[in-house]
Amino acid sequence: MKTNQEILIAGITPSFLEKGLLWFQENFEKIKTHAKTNSWWQDNTLFLETSQSVKISEVLRRLTDLGYERVSYLGARGEFSQLGGSIDVFPINAVMPIKIDWLGNIIETISDIKLTAAEKESATLARLKKSKIEERYKPGDYVVHLDHGIGIFRGFAAENETTKPKLQIPNKAKISNDQNGSDFFIIEYGAPRPGAAPDTLYVPFVKADKLSPYLGFATPQIHRLGSQIWFNTKKRIKEETIKLAQELIALYAKREMAQRQPVLGDEAQEKYFATEFEYIETEDQIRALEEISADLRKERPMNRLVCGDVGFGKTEVAMRAAFKAVLSGLPVAVLTPTTILCEQHFETFSKRFSRFPIMVARLSRLTPKQEQHEVIKKIKDGKIDIVIGTHRLLSKDLADLFPQKGGLLIIDEEQRFGVKQKEKLKSLNPKIDILNLSATPIPRTLYLALSSLQDVSQIKTPPPGRLAIKTFVLPYSRKVIRDAIDFELERSGQIYYLHNRIETIELVKRRLLKIKPDLKIGILHARLSEKQIIETMKKFHVGEIQMILATSIIENGLDFQNANTLIVDSASRLGLSQSHQIRGRIGRSNAQAYAYFLYQSKKFDPVRSRSSQDDRSRASGRAASNGAGDKAKRRLLALQEHQDLGAGDDIALQDLEIRGAGNILGREQSGHISAIGLNLYCQMLSEAVETLKQN
């Protein structure tokens, strides 16, 4: 909303629904500018003003296209109604409903409507909460009840169905004490004695906080209602979490000792630098930037982790932190796990800082030897402000990379570096500020446990206009490959084809040329020379190459907005998080992107290419169950299931279930987690940490 004379009606899209009302007010002009030139913004926003010439029928049609529901009386955001020559609408971006009156085909007045149906709004919020609960639980899933232990979720029942539920449930049922809720979870527990029917527990929706999905690494033991086993298990594991919490507190206490001068930057120049950003910042980006600025103003060196799904804007956050550090006279080093990511960051940073007197350099195996010597000399002379490099930054000749006063170290894709490597960097100078970036999201419950010890910022909101990548898991098929290539080339787009074996990559190229003889293909893998890698990336960037055929070297660092089709052969060999990362190489613009994960199988029902992408998507879930091993099948099905924007959280949880939690909390914790589930374990750990910190 801006004024009563000019209004914005935002479409009902996932990215808009996550925005606060203040965001729309602050970005009104930016949104209006985008809506003039960008097709996605044109399709998902509606601007109206008094004296505008527009038919009422056209506005009614547009409201329906935006996802608004036509009702007799307004009761909640996202609804509209018509009476004669006026429309009442409650925009999702407005504090109150709006009345729009017409005189002929001219909008005569636009005015606010005072709320008289607050109870309807509350009912709508309740419906939304119920809907989210129903999406979270699926019949057959294991669940954990805080008081009763692990059971099997069997569905939902309305209040009048608790005595004769529609589902076939044993006669014996135990109802939770509080039955004020109108709907119930149905949880099945173990039989009270051999040969007896299983017990059933009805849990009202108002007690939903007692339940959590079971996330573990083995098939759990189903508990019996009223048994002491669950009570004893919780007691034992609570004692273990206290021990772990003590170890974690001792570990993180070490970084509290060092001190350095506050990093204040220059507010005026930073605001100007922010206006150069061509996109609208998400609320999560703004929050992360505020948290980083607060860290840098302290005398204790920063040690913050920024988690965000692929393509959610972590790099912009890092560049603004780097700008603040440089303005404060501190050097900045950006450590990347791959040469390709190093090259991409060098291009991005150089372009972003081109209007400022800031020197950006790079150090990797793609940097010629002579240039490396020159860069190192300039670093030591203080003539380079930002250096971007791979493991080369860990070399002995860069031991004095940071001066005594400190500096900022940005570690991108920090999960790709070993503990010893990161500890070595931290030991370079105790006064340096460290900003870790990770595209592997931390599960929410684990975040709650660790955030008391480590500073964590999460970017969970996708950029406005970003579309979810449509993902298909299918048996290998030349026809699927041909159709996918033809579709992308018809819209003048580009393609990534991932084949993760260097030895046979040339053979795959010949096969692709048989499918599409005139296809312009470039190859990328780790054994190519520096010159070949740079040349291939440049040709792809300017459009001379239509497809990059590559190994998993493209997992990080490629950011070409015209590439919106990904084909992965032998997808069952990739890890789940790795596949999600590779999928993140596409869909980085407002164009719809498509990812095809193909697996080799001799036993499957042939999935014919269909004209409808939706048909192919439905078929792919069925087909994936026929190939590969159990873990590979679970990985592929997880990719198929979790393809919405921000699915990285769900991917991370699935990956934890498949691989175990050894990489996060230590292998010795896996048994405890399997006994009670990851959610409850992390809740206990969080409580233990807080209790110990207060004592």
UniProtKB/TrEMBL annotation:
Basic and acidic residues: compositionally biased ranges: 607-618
InterPro entries according to UniProt: CarD-like/TRCF_RID, CarD-like/TRCF_RID_sf, DEAD/DEAH_box_helicase_dom, Helicase_ATP-bd, Helicase_C-like, P-loop_NTPase, RecG/Mfd, UvrB_inter
Superkingdom in the source lineage: Bacteria
Keywords for this protein: ATP-binding, Cytoplasm, DNA damage, DNA repair, DNA-binding, Helicase, Hydrolase, Nucleotide-binding
Chain intervals for the UniProt region annotation (Disordered): 607-629
Domain Helicase ATP-binding residue range list: 295-459
Helicase C-terminal domain mapped to chain residues: 480-659
GO molecular function, a single term: ATP binding
Name this protein carries in UniProt: Transcription-repair coupling factor
GO biological process, one term: DNA repair
Biased composition (Low complexity): 620-629
CDD domains: DEXHc_TRCF
